[in-house]
Amino acid sequence: MKVLVTGATGFIGRHLVAALLSRKETIRILARNVEQAEAIWSPGLLEVVRGDFANALTLGDLCEGVDIVFHLASGSFAENDKTGEAEWLHQKVAVEGTKELLRRAARAGVKRFIFVSSVKAMGEGGSSHLDEASPELPQSAYGRGKLAAERAVLEAGRTYGMHVCNLRLPMVYGSDGKGNLPRMMAAIDRGWFPPLPEVKNRRSMVHVNDVVQALLLTAENPKASHQTYIVTDGCTYSSRQIYILLCQALGRSIPGWRFPAGLLQMAAKAGDLAGWVLKREVPLNSQVLYKLMGSAWYSCAKIQRELGYRPRYSLETALPEILKALCLVTSSQRSLALSPDRREEGKRS
Q1: Which of 56, 232, 255, 340 has the most CB atoms in a 10 Å sphere around its CB?
Q2: Ranges for the NAD-dependent epimerase/dehydratase domain (predicted)?
């Protein structure tokens, strides 16, 4: 069986390709930077095709001979853009690029098409526990682009009789990931991160290996056809619980005081004003504070019920490998074991 993976050089893509290689699948990947791909995988392990969704002419016969497409490629553009450029770029890359890939997949007789989307396609819902039946109210250009691409995937499935499925992901963590969580860990390790207050917010996350599990399940199980699934690790975390887990894993003492939520809000509003005056991003503003202290809470019950998905990781169990990958374990080998009398772990939802 031949598998096409777009976005293969990204965080999730690398883990998916590793899983496919372990299953002895024949793999083709699309890459804008062929040299980067060749630096990751040894020659002969897979086929690398140079192409870019921003230019359909570069895609050629990308889908010829392919049985399954895993479409992970996604643009990353500034969300605070006031010119409309981010909206246009997401439309061009995420939506039109996905439609073009769907057309080529249909012409080539591809049997299954799995699209990696985001919970941003739904919005964040405040304190509500969102599932696939919740209203779709995306609040960013990225989320609107993902939702439009999801709809194109489902429409193509109906039009061409193709097995299609959308996967909505929250923040993904793992040993070689990037983004807010590793930055937070590094700041705590240096003593630069303020002790967060408990505001009872709820956040969902998922380990990259559980994402791979979900991708393979949706490609293999006929029940997944024409469906959209949310994938999480089954845990619910508050921002303070995340902060405590990271402190404990790093061997850092948890301060006896907490930064007042009201003071954080005042600092964020000051950051909004400073950003407006300086015409550039500042470390703390209302948008950053919402990402830090707001809720983004999702249910993975549907994919568990219908496909037998079972998350194998939580943030707590994954922290040792993450710290090792980030080189945050000191020479004194600070203990990664969480003390039972201090544990404030995420509860299973």
Answers
A1: 232
A2: 3-226
